[in-house]
Amino acid sequence: MMTLEPRETSSTTVSLLLGHVRAHGGVAAVAEVLARAGVTESIDWLEDTANWVSYDTRIRLFEAATTVLDDPRTMYKVGSTVVTDGLHPVLVQLLSAFASPAAVYRQLPRFIPKFTTTSTMDSVSVRGTSASLRYRLHEGYRPSRLDCQYAQGLFAALPSMFGLNAAIVVHPECQCDGYECCVYEVTWSTRRRWWSLRSWALPTNRSLVLLREKVKEVQLAAADLVGSDDVDDVLARIVARASSAVLAPAYLLILTSDHGEPVLRFQGLDAPKAARVAARILDGDALGDRAVIVDVASSRRSYGRLAALYSLGHTTIEGDRTLLEAYAGHAAAALDLFTALDDSRREESRAAAMLVLAHELATSNGSEAVADAVALAVPAIAGCDAAAVLLWDAGPGVMHAVATAGLDTPQRDRVLASPIAAAQTPELVELLAHQRPVPLSATTASPQLAGLLAECGMTTAIIVPLLAGDVLMGVVVAGGWRSAPASGISPSTLARIEGVSHQGAIALQNARLLATVRHQSLHDPLTGLANRMLFASELDAAVSTCAEGSCTAVMFCDLDNFKQVNDVLGHGAGDELLRQIAVRLRGCLGAEATIGRLGGDEFAVLAHELPGHEQAVHLAHRVVDSLNRPFHVSGHDLRITASIGVAVHNGPGDGGERLLAAADTAMYDAKRTGRNQVALADDSNRTDPVASLQGELVEALGRAEMRLHYQPVVALASPDRVVGAEALIRWDHPRLGLLAPAAFLPLAEETGLVADLDLWVLGEALADLAALGDAAALAAAGEAPLHVAVNLASATLVDPRLIPTVRAALNRNRLRPERLVLEIVESRALIDLPGVVERLTELRRLGVSISLDDFGTGFSTLAWLNTLPVDQIKIDRTFTANLPEAASVALVEGIIALAQKLDIDVVAEGVETEDQLVALRDAGCAFAQGYLLGRPMPAFASVARALVSRG
User: Which of 147, 133, 80, 135 is nearest to 102 (CA)?
Assistant: First the structure.
């Protein structure tokens, strides 16, 4: 393998050679050259200047190229292209300092070792228009006339950098003829060519251009450093990409370690030599001109040192240290992203367990699922054999085990079947009193706990509370260390268990809150019945799963003259009557049907898998009869009647909204014919599929049912200031009320309507922004004009209407393009779309900003910053939610540090607490949005006038 060959000559020369062959012989000629030379590495590898090849490989490639092109002057021509076509960025440093060909020839001895370790230029005699160069190939290498031709082409071409004619090179002595070294006599004229008389500043201009290219190359190399989630791979990349800053035969990265021994990564050295050189550097030896040594450090911490190493007798050139220091700064920023999880990454199983735990806790739907995730994670993270999670029931004062890990089936059943009463367990009494970890020993524990430890084969364990603030949710029990120290569980192990328990407690609290919120969001707060959204969902599910030969029935129930109860007795009495009606409906129907309150005095009943519409009508009459009995409300006996419409659908269908609408129509028929009765919908027996929301969504834009809400984006300066808003679409559905995007956008994507919705939002949002008034007034007051952010689906991004729509909307509303931010969500589907990078680039050319939404949760994470042209990233709320925990703070700080290096703005989403805001401000985050800073508002003007206040 070529990668095992000595690093003797830089691939810069090989890259120039392959480019010349490709230009004069095509791709096939390049393949033939590699085959003739016996080279098996890829063309990309050979053209990467970070790689080096052996001198023998270099000469074989020279010989093969000369043969394939059938041109004996091939290598002379390749040498001459170093200046005209293939100038390596390293020459930027020379060009910025040299003012004449004589200066270049005089400095060549310092320059040659950057590209080869096999030869040296022993002495140079330079005069005004001539130079005598002595070039010697070291012992052990076979001289080649082709190498001499390459050198002559290079020496001859150097004056052309200054707008002069090529030099004349005479080669009187050659090592191929037995001489001690090769001698080259070079002469040139200082008279400029006629076409270059007005280009006297060519060297300076080229130097500046190449310097910019050099800086760009270093930045691209830095972006590549974060293209991996493995810290070892990142360290290897830091060494491998150092050549983007300084070209050298070898590189050495020395990282300090908490465990005494430094961590080394190197290229171009063997391990023993790398260790020797590292020891010298750590002892303070600067190695003289043979090395450029810089610190790898960020504002957060110092990681170690990076060295570019040269051959004996070589001296560095001006600019080497500056460029290597810049590169080391980028490397330190990349390492910042990994230090937060450094301890967990040292052991692959622990890192995997932490990631699995975070994922499981984020996706767990209930307390038992959270407990299972915590119990499974503790052994891998704490290094113990087994774990259990017990939840606290404050009523009877008992701990109930709900999840275990690391136990066999009999042991698990024993633990799960053994509730532990606090009154009989001193350890739990201590934990309840002090809310701190309690160690357990099989020899000293209370009888019940000692028995459980013995049955599980454990001698030691520890109980750690699951605390959400001051509220005890339960405990984590970890035990069974095979190599537990005599002094007990180590502080670091205890800290890891406490970290897991802290995450588990928050997840348990969130699970309980989520269960409460979910119940409240789907149930009527007054009666506890299903609300319109839940009822519609249950109806859709019932219709879609109804078996052939059965039917689904909906009863729409409206109370007769209910308004009089509110008018005469007051709304309090009306609410009490509605509660009693809900209780009576439950008693009447029991488990036979689903009951919902749609709003006001309207109720609905769903019955499925009925044999026919007769049974549905019978149920409706039962409801009418049950409501005819008097209700006792506020000291009054009230009689209330109901009109009920019934609609029936046979077999499976694709939605229930039309069925509910048919029952509603039938209910009005019942009212028109005398109230207190049941009416059956005319089309109740038809077998056509029930319509879904799809048809209504198609017509929603035309019916002007879509609405925009705006959530403010705040600059975290002092004081906080609104700088813009994100446009959020809502559907004002005539029956279901105001629907959030999650209720209809998936359907829009499935049916191909999402692009139409996105383009509508784009036009409306810019119109609302323009309605705020002249931006010049804000600028005159010292404030930047507000911007608006619009989310784009991947289908919209490649829609041919997008660019014209953006341009037209900006022109129509007379808005500057920088006031529009287009947000895209990272996903594999997006990166696979053809032309996505070109489309984003075209949008940026218009002056529009591009934001990468939900950053860190998608397919490619950090590698996107090197792939897509983005101006802004939005840190996903999953990162913000755990602030100010140390791990989350470190991750957010790392993302912000990298973004600052790449000149990308950062917006943190989901800010809901003061602690989260303080952590983001301390981390250097510039912008944020979330409920703490402002909820979505139905008018942009409200956002513009909003003052960020929290109290």
Answer: 133
- Mean of pLDDT values over 919-941: 89
- For residue range 326-366, list pLDDT tens digits in order: 778 777 877 776 665 454 445 566 667 777 788 778 777 78
The mean per-residue pLDDT over the stretch 688-713 comes to 75
**Residues with Cβ within 8 Å of residue 312, at least 6 apart in sequence:** 290
Confidence of residue 1 (pLDDT cuts 50, 70, 90): very low
- Give the least confident one: 471-480, 527-536, 820-829: 820-829
Place of tokens 């339960």: 474
Burial of 779 (0-12, 13-18, 19+ CB in 10 A): exposed
Report strand pairing: 787-791 vs 721-733. parallel
SS3 525: coil
Which pLDDT does position 64 carry in this prediction?
A: 94
Q: Which stretches does DSSP call E strand in 406-454?
A: 420-421, 438-441
Cβ pair 190, 151 in contact under 8 A: no
672 in Cβ contact with 583 (< 8 Å) = no
**CA nearest 604: which of 589, 614, 613, 594?**
594
- The answer for 383, left when phi > 0, alpha when psi is -120 to 50, beta otherwise, is left
Q: How many angstroms separate the CA atoms of 187 and 207, rounded?
A: 24
Look at the pTM and tell me if it is higher than 0.90. no
> pLDDT: is 218 or 661 the higher one?
661
**DSSP secondary structure string for all residues of 398-413:** EEEEEEEES--HHHHH
Whether the upstream peptide bond of residue 262 has omega within 30° of 0, thus cis, is no
**Residues 723 and 714: beta-carbon distance below 8 Å:** yes
Q: How far apart are CA 49 and CA 7, in angstroms?
A: 12
Residues pairing with 421 in the sheet: 398
Position 338, amino acid: F
**Extended strands (E) in 110-236:** 119-126, 130-137, 168-173, 182-187
Res. 313: pLDDT tops 70: no
Residues 6+ apart with CB under 8 A from 784: 723, 778
With contact defined as beta carbons under 8 Å apart, do 895 and 864 qualify?
no
Cα(557)–Cα(595) distance, integer angstroms: 10
> Sorting pLDDT into bands at 50, 70 and 90, what band is 196?
very low
Please give the biggest Cα pair distance in the chain. 126
Orientation angle between helical segments 348-363 and 367-382, nearest 10 degrees: 170
Model confidence at 302, pLDDT cuts 50, 70, 90, reads confident
Torsion, Cα of 279, 280, 283, 287 (10° steps): -150
CA torsion, ordered 927, 933, 935, 939, to nearest 10 deg: -70
Place of tokens 């090179």: 169
Q: What is the pLDDT of residue 115?
A: 78
- Secondary structure letter of residue 293 according to DSSP: E
Exposed / middle / buried, residue 491 (Cβ in 10 Å: 0-12, 13-18, 19+): exposed
The pLDDT value recorded for residue 826 is: 60
Any long-range contacts for 896-900 (C-beta under 8 Å, 24+ apart)?
Answer: 896/923, 896/924, 896/925, 897/298, 897/299, 897/300, 897/333, 897/336, 897/337, 897/924, 898/226, 898/333, 898/334, 898/336, 898/337, 898/862, 898/865, 899/865, 899/873, 900/924
Cα(323)–Cα(329) distance, integer angstroms: 10
> Which pLDDT does position 764 carry in this prediction?
93
Q: What does the alpha-carbon distance between residue 529 and residue 525 come to, in Å, rounded to a whole number?
A: 8
Q: CA–CA separation, 65 vs 18, rounded Å?
A: 8
Q: Where are the beta strands (DSSP E) in 127-167?
A: 130-137
